[in-house]
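Researcher: I'm comparing several assemblies side by side, and this is the next one on my list. It has 551 residues spread over two chains. Same procedure as the others: predict the full complex and return the structure.
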Amino acid sequence: MPLCVDGVLLPSHALIATQRPILLSEHGTCQGDAKLPKHGKCVCERILEMVPAEACVRGDNAERHPKATREADGKLRSQPDAESYNDDFKTLETSNMTPVARFESYRDFYFVSFDRNIISLSDYLAGAKEYIDLICDQTDSAMHIVPGTQEYSIRANWKLLTENSIDGYHAATTHASYFDYLGKTTDMALGDVAARPPGYGYDLGNGHAVIEYPAPWGRPVAQWISAWGEQGRAEIDAIYNNLVRRHGEERAKRISKLNRNMFIFPNLVINDIMAVTVRTYYPTAPDYMQISSWSLAPKGESEWLSKYRLHNFLEFLGPGGFATPDDAEALEHCQRGFANFQDVPWNDISKGMNSKRPIHRDELQMRVFWTQWNNQMFPAPASKKSSVAA
Amino acid sequence: MADVTRAQVEDFLFDEADMLDKWQLPEWLELFTEDAEYQVPCMDLPADATPDHNLFYIADDRFRLGERVKRLMKRTAHVEFPHSKTRHMVSNVRVRPRADSDIDVTAVFATYRTKDGVTDLYFGSSSYRLMPADGTFKIRSKRCVLDTDALRPSGRISIVL
């Protein structure tokens, strides 16, 4: 459901970017476009007022919610019975909505933190910036979120989806039926998936991690498959040639031919695979999480590319795709298995620890996540006075 | 259109539901035309949204619908092996003529899926474009719009709605 503050329509995902009620607002437009300008504000309200979009367009939201109207930045504009308040009421900071502690953006990805003392977003993202750049550099326009939100859930602990989202080990078995389908669209013998040329896993700092690897599926930017026909080949060639012009052969190849499954601690996934999906997830119970997924795409892409990108997205991704439902099933089975935690109090993620350069089917990226999680959940106890040398 | 009664359309839809509940998916696939579409849009999209510009849950052309059926009949479709049990209920069927020789049908549905002690309910409205053929119908398009705000707690559409 779209939200609005002072006549500004907000996309539905403005709300579910967090479990707490938060409004993202934008000055000067009444369109439900996901992209916020640099001066976008992010505010919390004790009571979230939801106003239907139609009412918002008609400008009669005050009639429906005769409480208060606000400027797009959360400042109080007016309230009924204003004479019952002190004259300076509107000038008080406490009359305004409260900005979130931190709200910063990188390449048009907007991040909220409730920790006032957290390091800057740029420092926080650390090595992940390089990979966000690779994804955003696929267009000389801007990236945007395609309308339509896949809002679903899995009856498992949220940390399992972190593992699953950046795991190259399970694809061949968990998604065997997807690879059967893929073989029909690529005109290529897929062979043994586990025998393909490897990619690698990378620690990006601060608990972020990525795997980067080649794969046989089509990529809208830009790896052609036979199912896309000759028109598709021309489209893909043009995109690739444009990339070479802008970035040179080496970077163009990396942007278009390699896949990236990236995790940004604690609960953001940006997977640049057969389409680009942005996914965030929140636990509402130890064994239940709510997930929201979107399709990220270049703004103003051609009709052909838009159509085939979305078609490609759905072949694998999302709760109606050929892969995600099997992931969910697997995670739920894992969750049931963890009922044995008292007798089996560990989970093995050591794959690739015997290698100097773990590949994408190893588990370096899991260890990066869990190490950060462990450090934050169970920080080393502060040294006691008695142990400090006099 | 003059020859088509609601009872005929209902019989057809009840047969379809029965095939789905019996997991007779290859036979069910035969109900579709060669240019058929099967769609389940995301819930935050307008009614006329197209999968060419919007993210759906499912937007199958006839080729991918066939592949969906093949997948769901395999052991490696883990989420549906063994198959869940389902009950597809179809009601409030309405038939409308079209300018061409096909007919538009709208209905409401409530589908239960149960497996491993968990039962989920999917409900909403469906719209079909049917092509009268040989005393029965072929499905040219089927679109199911779920009424819930989100796919929760069911979390997936691993069955055919």
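Model: For your comparison table: The domain at 6-146 of chain B is CATH 3.10.450.50 (Nuclear Transport Factor 2; Chain: A,).
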